[in-house]
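Fold it.
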Amino acid sequence: EILIGLVGSEMCIETAIDRIIDVYPPHSQGQIRAQLANSLVAVISQTLVPTADGKGRIAALELMSCTDAISSLIREGKIFQIPNSIQTSKALGMFSLDQDLARLVRTGKITEELQEAVARTPTISRDISELINQHKSSSDVTMPPVYTAALFMRF
């Protein structure tokens, strides 16, 4: 297995995947998508955001495991649909940036104003936050632990 780190502004999982594919000439991209779909294990994306107390930064994360459905989206060039798959795959351990921002607001690590500024879909992020606040004691709304930013592949 290999770990490939990616750095960039406005980095998200679909951008990381697109960047890898776009390195290759257009006539090779279909083959690269197929190889990537077969070798990708997981992608973790992070955005460092200021803490609520203003004394530092905290990572807001997004985690994607490469399931058969995700592999199919990559192979078919439907990378733009990956965020929807992540959003609906919490049971598989995946979570979106917006879901993690809602967790950070719930735990008091960041402010709601910052959540709105950073969220990819502010309305959805706000709705997630409200849902979590309504069910704070429920174990089914807890988020996975914090990871490091990386792209993992198997060869």
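The first strand starts at residue 2 and ends at 4.
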